[in-house]
């Protein structure tokens, strides 16, 4: 998803502020130099006058007089540099001060976005996602297979938790690598503490680092926003979030089933997942519910949309949060 115009303008306003700060710093420095070195201002005025003459003669096609003016300008500029140094100022004291010297705080190098502009987009997406802090801890770099035992076996499939998570991990990696090329959705389900949210967060960080927009909500917060948008028409924040819910590249709904469920919730849930399917905007849903319970709570219609259009990943294993606590106690 490209930046919305309002988001683009917000970033560009920050660049304008950087340019104004640079201008203010340069103006104050120039005034400081002129106060301490009055001769500096006179040299500067002489250069301005000669530069105007140089321009006029250049336009009038007077090559002989241009040569002498260039020499005079060079002498005056050298005098300025010597005077500045003699006053104890650094040679570059009156050079523009940029936060990014590559694009000179414009955000662009030629017609291409500068690396600092791309980082500004990523920062904006992180702020918008509701995941900024947690993703520092939960990402593909910190994901560990060690918490999944080969001795924990699903009696129905005969597969152990290590095999299951290795397959799920590979699918999540592929989801990221093919994002924007292949349209996919993920449904993560299983017992509490088996890594469903962690995997979702891994995907979220990887995609935001590639400048995709990701929006994360717990199920209760998600349905609260939908309700506010429906019943509190003057709530601007809810309206803006509602629009993002439908338009972001990836929507993550975490812990589905922890919210209070009624006909309104079931209806809103179906509308959202269906519209995102139609517009080919990916969604990740995680839940501790069984598939049978899901069908009962959110209607067969929603259940059918999910089972038909989502990759279903059932995770099994011990509660990792308990394992981590026990490990920390042993280490301490």
What does this protein look like?
This protein has helices spanning 5-36, 38-60, 63-86, 115-129, 161-177, 196-208, 219-231, 236-247, 263-278, 291-309, 320-331; strands at residues 108-109, 112-113, 186-190, 214-218, 250-256, 282-287, 311-315. The longest helix has 32 residues, at 5-36. Helix content is 59%, strand content 10%. The chain is built from eleven helices and seven strands. The mean pLDDT is 88. The protein is α/β, with parallel strands linked by helices.
First-to-last CA distance:
46 Å
Mean pLDDT: 88
Q: Quote the beta fraction.
A: 5-15%
Rg over CA atoms, rounded to whole Å, is 30 Å
- What structural category characterises the helix and strand content? alpha/beta
Largest sheet: 5 strands, parallel
Overall spatial form: elongated
Low-confidence stretches: none
**N-to-C series of helices and strands:** HHHEEHHEHEHHEHEHEH
What does the oligomeric state look like here?
Answer: single chain
Number of strands: 7
Task: Work out the helicity level.
Answer: 55-70%
Q: Give me the side-by-side strand order of the main sheet.
A: 4-5-6-3-7
Number of discrete helical segments: 11
Short account of what is shown:
By secondary structure, the protein is α/β, with parallel strands linked by helices. The protein has helices at residues 5-36, 38-60, 63-86, 115-129, 161-177, 196-208, 219-231, 236-247, 263-278, 291-309, 320-331; strands spanning 108-109, 112-113, 186-190, 214-218, 250-256, 282-287, 311-315.
